[in-house]
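Intended use. Records like the one below are meant for learning the mapping from a protein sequence to its folded structure. Do not use them to infer anything beyond what is encoded.
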Amino acid sequence: GINAEYMGSSGINAEYMGSSGINAEYMGSSGINAEYMGSSGINAEYMGTAVMEARKALGITGFYAIKKGTPLYKAAKELYNIKSFSKMRRRSIAMHAERTA
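Structure written out for the chain above:
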């Protein structure tokens, strides 16, 4: 329509039209697709499991931000680097034992 022609000719980018700046191919119905996470070097499945195990190991319930430098981030990153679910679980149990001992 008329608006489409106007936006194209004035140089207005889709980035400024309410998009999050991420290509539409990476966006799914519930947010960013796992493909995008993979392209950034993070395996979403492993990172999600690492965070869950780190929360168990540290005894965290409720909301806790995963920011760089926090104990949760450090524990999750350590577990994420293992890249094996069974080894990740064993390490989180050991972390919990260290914390409670």
